[in-house]
Amino acid sequence: MARTSRAPASRAGGVTAFVAPWLAMAEIAVTAPLVIAHRTARLVTGGWPPRPREQRELVRMWTEKVDAFTRAAVVAATAVPGPATAARALAPVRSRVRGNARRLGHRR
Length: 108
Fold this sequence. Notes:
Blueprint: H1 9-45, H2 52-78, H3 83-106
Helix pairs in contact: 1-3, 2-3
């Protein structure tokens, strides 16, 4: 009898698929407040009426939210429920949050 030390492939993939949505939610939960704080600080210190740069940021903020959550809803509504679907549904939101953090963090 030969023994194998490897775990079944389905078990390893299942654990990864189960953990991925939780990691995505954690990243969103940590990064989104930073983006909100940066945008709020820019809007508050910009004065009234908002300058064109801040007006573009306000429009971008709303259009990105609608787009990301619409994409997430389509994935959630059309795919088989499960951890992999949850990770795919969170991907558009996570992508936007990460991109905004990167973009807003580089502006001074």
